[in-house]
Amino acid sequence: MEQKFKALIVWLILNGKTERALEMLAEHYGVEVPKLKVGLPKGRKKKALGCYSAKNKTISVLNSDTLKDPFIILHEFYHHLRTALDKKHKGTEKYADEFSKEFIQAYKSMVR
Question: 3-44, pLDDT tens digit by residue?
Fold first, then answer.
């Protein structure tokens, strides 16, 4: 069940249904749905493809193409999740990457 859920989330993001994927993730983990915004906040690194603002509970992505990038969306959702569950700790980049990779691996194994 968990693998199917993870694969579905990746499929939704790849197919431009990112807001639906975030709704399902938030429901699954029992947290508020983060806002989603195209365009990074001022002062962000130019190389960044996405970021999470705990203050605004917003996932910001570089451009509309990034909305279909499961790795970026899931990475930033992990920061949202960690912030929602533990106000002091946003989670490390390493764990955010691992979170994303788990979902993508589930998708790849379902596609095979």
Answer: 999 999 999 999 999 999 999 999 999 999 999 999 998 876
What is the SS3 string spanning the chain?
CHHHHHHHHHHHHHCCCHHHHHHHHHHHHCCCCCEEEECCCCCCCCCCCEEEECCCCEEEECCHHHHHCHHHHHHHHHHHHHHHHCCCCCCCHHHHHHHHHHHHHHHHHHHC
| Integer Cα distance of 28 and 17 in angstroms | 17
Rounded to 5 degrees, what are φ and ψ at 28? -60, -40
pLDDT tens per residue, range 45-75? 667 899 999 999 999 999 999 999 999 999 9
**CA–CA distance from 83 to each of 8, 31, 94 (Å)?**
24, 10, 16
Task: With beta carbons less than 8 A apart as the criterion, state whether 59 and 50 touch.
Answer: yes
* pTM score: 0.93
The answer to whether 29 and 81 have CB atoms below 8 angstroms apart is: yes
